[in-house]
Amino acid sequence: MSEERGRGRGRGGDKDKGKGDAPRRGGGFFRRRRVCKFCAEKIDYINYKDVRILAPFLPERGKIQPRRISGTCAMHQRKLQTAIKRARQLALIPYVTD
Amino acid sequence: MSQTRQYELVYIVTPDASDQEVTDLHTQIEQIIQRFNGTLDKTENWGRRKLAYEIGHHREGTYVVETISGSGELMKEIDRRLRVIDQVIRHLVVRVDEELRVAERTREARKSNQARRRVARGLPPEPAPGESRGDSDMDDDRELEVQR
């Protein structure tokens, strides 16, 4: 579709900061801060009926993956949150998995 | 008085229900929509699907998705009716027009923004179909930032 990030740039800002921070934390395990998946793929509407979009943000336990790990921007994390909660109501994804 | 809005209705019917009963339910909803002067924009039957967790001892259910334009009163009535019907084990009504409008707006903003920036770089506003995508356009962005 389009070639550039547009408003996504503003959100890209905290990505860069994260990159700078990560090595300083030093010692042990760190995950590289990634770009927000929804900004990168230009998904404007997070559909709660599409389990395939939501699945990567649900680790085994079925909890919503925090932003600090997934790298999702604040706006999309918020939208993702409502989408996941709706999908849970419809038994498309579990509330908990033991 | 009441405004027309677009809603999405998803309901799950018991796996015990026959196809006939599912269509009956659908016609029932259609009748309510007609009574309230709404329109049924789209219906989708996902068929039988495994539930992520048990709902009232059911492990499966038939999913039906309907896109409806109508008033809030209409949806209230549908919501009330579905609550009463035992065959429907779960339902959800979501207002979608606002969200879709927002998505549309961001898409357009991105498009015009892209066109503007492409013109600023002396390129035609629309990218040619064969033009590179993915990683290379990230490099483009960074270059632009340096120039500023």
- CATH topology title of the largest domain in chain B: Alpha-Beta Plaits
Structural class of the helix and strand makeup of chain B? alpha+beta
- Nearest-angstrom radius of gyration of chain B? 23 Å
Number of strands of chain A: 0
Compute the number of helices of chain A.
5
Helix-strand category of chain A? mainly alpha
SSE order of chain A in H/E notation? HHHHH
Top-tier CATH class of chain A: Few Secondary Structures
Q: What would you call the quaternary organization?
A: heterodimer
* Strand line-up of the largest beta sheet of chain B: 2-3-1-4
- Quickly name the level 1 CATH class of the largest domain in chain B: Alpha Beta
Rg from Cα of chain A: 15 Å
Order of helices and strands of chain B: EHEEHEHH
Low-confidence stretches of chain B: 134-148
Low-confidence stretches of chain A: 1-27
CATH fold node name of chain A: 30s Ribosomal Protein S18
Describe the 3D structure.
The complex is a heterodimer of chains A (98) and B (148). Chain A is mostly helical and 98 residues long. Chain A has a single domain, classed as 30s Ribosomal Protein S18, CATH 4.10.640.10. Chain A is globular and about 30 Å long. The N terminus of chain A is likely disordered. Chain B has 148 residues and is of the alpha+beta class. Chain B has 2 domains: 91 residues, Ribosomal protein S6/Translation elongation factor EF1B (Alpha-Beta Plaits, 2-Layer Sandwich); 29 residues. Chain B is built from 4 helices and 4 strands, in the order E-H-E-E-H-E-H-H. In chain B, strands 2-3-1-4 form a 4-stranded antiparallel β-sheet. Chain B is elongated and about 65 Å long. Chains A and B meet through helix 5 of A and strand 2, strand 3, strand 4, helix 3 and helix 4 of B.
